[in-house]
Amino acid sequence: MLCPFLSYFFHIISFFRIRSFFFGSFLNRPFVSDKTTRLYISTPFLFPMIDDTLKIFKELTKKDFRILAGIELGMRDFEWVPVSEIQRFACMSLDKLNYRLEWLRRKKMVIGTLDPYEGYKIYFEAYDALALHTYVARKTFSAIGVEIGVGKESVVMEVLKEPEMAVADPEVFILKLHREGRTSFKQVKRTREHLAGKEHFSWIYAARLAANREFNIMQKLWPDVSIPKPIDQNRHTLVMEVAQGSELFKTKLLDPDWFLDEILRQIKLVYGKGIIHNDLSEYNIFVSEDGIQIIDWPQYVTLAHPHADELLRRDVENVLNHFSKKYKIRRDIDEIIREIKTENSIDLEKLKKEFPDDEVRLNAEMDREIESAVNELEDCGIDFEREN
C-alpha cells in the first residue's frame, strides 16, 4: 500500500508529536485556570490568529465570559452593543462592568466606540475564547497543542482530552475553527434578506453557519462513510477525531490503483446518501494502511442542488487528474459517473425533508441561546424584558 519507509516515518513523527504535545502541556507548563475553567496550553506552539486568545484565556473570569456572551448576543441587533444592553447579561454594577470592559479592550477581547454612543463588539479572538470556554466546561478537551494548518477560511489544531484514569492514554482530537466570515459573507448575505444592513454580524453568522453545516453532515455520514468521527461542535468550531495517515498529495503510494478504487467507492457511498462533497481533491483525502478518510465538508451539496451533476463530475475529475499526473493511471470518467449513479436511486423529495435549510436550523439554535441567556439573567435577579 504505502511505501514502507514513509509509513514508518509518519508513525515516528506522529508518536513524538503527540508526546511533545502531552509533556509540553502537562509537565513543563503550569495549567491555566480561573474559578470556572481548567485549560492546559502548550505555550511553545502558540501561533497567529489564536495565540492572543490562548495567552489571555487564563485571565478571563466567569464575569468576563458573561460580558463577552452578552456582546455576542447583542450583535444580532446592534452594530455596537450599548453598555446598558451588556449590563443586562453581565450581572454586575455599572462601575464594575466599565472596569472589566476597559480591561477586555486593552487585552483586545472587545472593540469599543463612543460615537454615536458608548458601545462594544467582539471579533474572532473573543469568539474563540467563548468556544474554548464551552468545550472545557463540557470536558470535550482539556489541552491545546500544535497547529495542524492555517488557511484563509479555517485554523486547525490538535487538542487533548485528559484521561479519567492516570494509567490511561490521553485522547488527541482535532479542533477546527472556521474563519469564513473574513471572505464569504457576501454569499451568505445574498441568500438572507433579513441580514441586509447587518454586516456587523456577518463574520459570526458565516463562520458559525459553516461549522454547523460541517458538523451536521459529518454526523449523518459517520460511520458509514470513511471520515473522522465528529465529537462536538460549538459556535464557529468543531471537534473531531484525528484523520488517519497523511494527505494524499504528499504521499507516495505503492498500490495507487487500490487507493483510487477506494476513493471512488467512498464517493459512491456519499452519493448514495444524497450528498456530494463539492470540494474534493488530493488535499482533503488522507491515506493510510487501513484505507482512506475524507475531510473538509462545509461546502457539501445535496443531489437536489441544480448543478449536482456538474459538481459530482468535478469532484471525480479532481481525483482522476491527480492519479493521472502522479501515477499515469487513466480511467474513463463517464463510465465512473454512470456507475455511481446507476447503483444509487435517490428520492429527491425525501432528500429535501432529510436536509432542512441550514440557515433556518442555525437561526433556531441561536434563538434557543437567547432564551437560555434570558433564563440565566432571571437567576441573577435582573429584571430582563426581552424586546421583540
From TrEMBL:
Coiled-coil spans in chain: none
A Pfam family the protein falls into: Rio2_N
Domain RIO kinase: 116-342
Catalytic activity from the UniProt record: L-seryl-[protein] + ATP = O-phospho-L-seryl-[protein] + ADP + H(+); L-threonyl-[protein] + ATP = O-phospho-L-threonyl-[protein] + ADP + H(+)
One annotated GO molecular function: metal ion binding
Keywords linked to the UniProt accession: ATP-binding, Kinase, Magnesium, Metal-binding, Nucleotide-binding, Serine/threonine-protein kinase, Transferase
Keyword Cell membrane attached: no
Protein name: non-specific serine/threonine protein kinase
Species assigned in the record: Methanolapillus millepedarum
